[in-house]
């Protein structure tokens, strides 16, 4: 639909992937195993944005909230793609299950 122009020029992408975890002893919180929300759930909105934009980001900026095991338990980020297409996303282990993706274009 994006490629066919159904929403006009793609302008903005929003994505989230969050779910609550038990507070301790969970592999996703283990730094030695590469844990953290951006690796576990943030990859989905980032990959979706890259796919829909059809390009790699030109700029990236983000914030994280580290937990007691020193992995990001919450991550919020912004990416800018060619053509002034922007992605805002969040990932984390403290809010309810939220697999959400939204596209905004000049027409819809």
Task: Give the helix level as a range of percent.
Answer: 10-25%
What structural class do the secondary elements suggest?
alpha+beta
Strand order, sheet with most strands = 2-3-4-1-5
How far apart are the termini? 11 Å
Topology, number of strands: 5
Whole-number radius of gyration? 15 Å
Beta-strand residue percentage: 35-45%
Number of contiguous helices: 1
Low-confidence stretches: none
The geometry reads as elongated
What would you call the quaternary organization?
A: single chain
* Arithmetic mean pLDDT: 94
Q: Biggest β-sheet, characterized? A: 5 strands, mixed
User: Secondary-structure element sequence?
Assistant: EHEEEE
Task: List its traits.
about 110 residues, elongated, alpha+beta, five-stranded mixed β-sheet
Account of the 3D structure:
The chain starts with 9 loop residues before the first strand and ends with a strand. Strand 3 (72-81) and strand 4 (85-92) form a beta hairpin. The chain is elongated, with a radius of gyration of 15 Å. It has a 5-stranded mixed sheet with strand order 2-3-4-1-5, covered by helices on one side. It has one helix at residues 37-53; strands at 10-18, 59-66, 72-81, 85-92, 100-105. By secondary structure, the protein is α+β, with helices and mostly antiparallel strands. The chain is 16% helix and 38% strand.
